[in-house]
Amino acid sequence: MKRIVTLIIIFFNLLSVKTAQAQHEIELHFMDSVSQSGLTNPAFRLRSGKSTYSLPGVSYNVISPYAGSQLSFDKEGKRTLDFKTVFNIAKPVSHLYGNFEVQAIGLSLGFKKLTVSFHNSIKGNTHLNVSKDLIGGFAYGNRSYLGKTMNLGSGFNATLHSELGLGAAYKINDKITVGARIKRLSGIANIATLKQKVELYTDSVDYKLSFNTDFDVRTYGLKTFENFGNGTYTLGDIFISENGGWSFDLGGTMQWNKLRIDASVIDLASSITWVKDIKTYSSSGKYEYTGSKSDKFFSFESLGEKDIQDTLKKALNVQEGTTAKTTTKLPLKTYLGLTYNITEKIRLGFLMYNESWNGISQTDFAFNTTFTLSKAVQLGATYSARAGNYNNVGVHAVFKLGPVQLYGATDNILAVVDSYKAKSTNGRIGLNIIF
Amino acid sequence: MKTRASFLVLFLFIAFVYSCRLPIEDVNTSVEPEFALPLLETKTTVKEMLEGIDSTVSLSFGTDGQITAQFSTTALSKSTLDPFDGIPSSFVPLMDTAFSIPFAPPGGLKILTVDFKKGMTQFLVSNNFNESLTVTFRIPQMTKNGAIFQKIINLPKGVLGQKDSLDLTGYSFVNPNDAVKVQYDARKNSNNERVVLTNAQIAFKGMQGKYIKGYFGINRFDIPKDSLNIAFIDKLTRGEVRFSEPKITLILENSYGIPVRARVNTAEVMTADKKRIALSGSFVSNGTDLNYPAINEVGQMKTTQITLDKSNSNLVDIASSRPMSFVFDIDGIINPDGNRNITGFMLDTSSFKMKMNIDVPLYGTVKGFEERDTLSFDMPSTDNLKSAEFKIIADNGTGLNANLQAYFLDASNHIVDSLFTVTNQTILKAAAVDANGKVTTPANLTTFVKVDEAKILRLKFAKKAIVKYTFSTVNNGSTPVRLLSNQEIKIRIGVVLGTRL
Lengths: 435, 501
What we know:
The structure holds two protein chains of two kinds. Chain A is mainly beta. Chain A contains seven helices and 23 strands. In chain A, a hairpin with a 4-residue loop joins strand 17 (about 330-340) and strand 18. The longest helix of chain A has 13 residues, at about 1-15. Residues about 1-20 and about 295-305 of chain A have low confidence and may be disordered. Chain B is mostly beta strands. In chain B, the strands form seven sheets. In chain B, strands 5, 6, 7, 8, 9, 10, 11, 12, 13, 14 and 24 form an eleven-stranded antiparallel beta sheet that branches. The radius of gyration of chain B is 44 Å and the shape is rod-shaped. The chains are: A mainly beta, B mainly beta. Chains A and B meet through helix 1, strand 3, strand 4, helix 4 and strand 21 of A and helix 1, strand 1, strand 2, strand 35 and strand 37 of B. Strand 4 (about 80) of chain A pairs parallel with strand 1 of chain B, so a sheet runs across the interface.
């Protein structure tokens, strides 16, 4: 129960999304002094042409339809999540999203016309569709639904995988640079709902529970459902997992004097085939739970000795099983950008970003200004219209102290100023050594 | 300047990173949902409730559903009367060639006819003559397949005390004059001259009749004293319980063709508190004459049924006195009036059998019937539990009220709390009944049991619970009700758990 509550807390505080898709970082695309910008286009090379060794860095991206300040209040100096408020403002279905990336290592070797890069990252992303009645269940319990039907069906899709990437960018001439990257994907764990219908009717007289279900939950790479988040994995599971797949990034840039056009597709033809520890949890039909069928009157032995969760699991008639190997895909991202160097220190940029997955497509637009204050300092600011949200102002900062490069970026500075008032927040920080 | 700018950016960077920290760890939750769950649903009929309650009792279920507790026992007696007692079994000298031997049992018995099942006639003769003799014994009263009893004995000369015998099995004997007339005819083999023996004796040994007709005097059949375990009734009679229609049925079977009167020596119950209460009534005082087969109904069994109930005994009082056992001692008296003109019979298979049935229909009044049970109790984990409200919904198809109370005791057997604040909380409301005690309208009662946080805290110390429930019939035990097999009690218990997550 606490784990579920914790998950809910995390998502309601930190996540927001208007669509059910992943959202890639916008600001990173404009950070051409950082080798990690190549993750948005394999043709990107450092302007200095130098080599970079990347120390571990992290990025996260969490989006919710509600700001933390809408859902919580101060109580004795601590933020307190108010489920009743959550319920009051919740939509029939709330779409929540979050992802994170930990880049363990990265190496970019710059030559005259060629840049070769290698990186390893662990990525996780989660989509969650939460029904309003499920929130009501947490806020009030089913007592407030006596004689009514609760639609508890909520979907989720969480994937944890790692990738080993080997890429190259080649400067064909002064105008054209092309790049490509091949990535070996290793699935660590996945949990997803294929069907998610769970209706609960609580009888107002005797509290009899009637379930109408049609759900299908599948887990991959997990010993058990309960293992999610608590799994123990070997290095082999993380880096060269049996749940393997491939992914490709392609990109190119074209430079005309001060104008540069860039285009890329990320995670092209990407897929992970899950073969290890595939489990299914399903229930379909109408089930009723009327309590223990004891034949003993007035006996306390029949009360409370059964664990309620086990009882409900039986009541839901959850069938556990397995199925054949399954392939899942990662979202395909497309970047189309323009940059114009007004001066050597000031650059304007435009980006059209599209992401599509499972037949759902979303396009964002962003305008950027980057200031290169010195060889040591670069600052940038970006306005973006993302998924119908038009008040996103992002910033990035890069500075260099000797060979050490520090960088940080966010697509929504409001979240940095006051994270509780933001519906979304993301960020990326890291260290590079340039040589 | 550039250095200062760099440090300014570095400061902003650190501030940015600090601001970007996830605030998860500082977040509490404020949620107190209440979950409604069904805990128990049980439905049972009165028949199911009573089955298996006691293996010593048999429950019968009438076509109308009436449940009756039944107890029964059977006693068998055979007559110890020996009509041949007194008939000489030693040798009797025959003083002449025709001689009568008395055949009259003592005690006023008179045997008219006997069909022998077994027995032996023995002869002892001597020959004082100088030649051999042929001796023919005859008993005209005894015949077998139409032939008169006859025994021929060859006596060589000079033989003294020669013995011989004849099996009586299958012979019929008529005895109009209480005497056996024995004749013998002894003749010399040389010239057929009839002679009188100096020594001729006869004896009858081991006689048993298969059929005896006559008058058997005033005698007694002794049926062994017995007792019947009726402790089950005690289980139903804690408190003030009064059964309205208890009944004892005595079924007496008699195949003796003789007038027999059943006489009660002892009929009493032993109560749970060690008291003896005697059964009273006309039968107990006077006994009753039993039916018996007439002289032309040989081999038939005649049945006499005696019923004791509230109309002719104090059974209602006895059945309501927490009886544990019923002790009885009944004899059968033959020819109780000593009428010698009644000719009867007995067979070797004749018997006197008594079967006693005690029927206690579950129909009556109950007041203060109490049952207790001690259960181990261990409060489940209540980390997130703030309160609990149990809802007990009882649909009652019987005429019984039920009250419940439970006391929770700690390891030192001190009461830490009780389930209800009142002594007895009604959780089962009696259904309405008609004049015959049959339910007309089932009753429904909903009871709430609230367990607040303080109570939960107290119950954490509880190690066991004494559960006490008491029953009474309609109108506080003043109206008789019937427990019928198909009457049903349905109990549903739900709970609303107030939690703090």
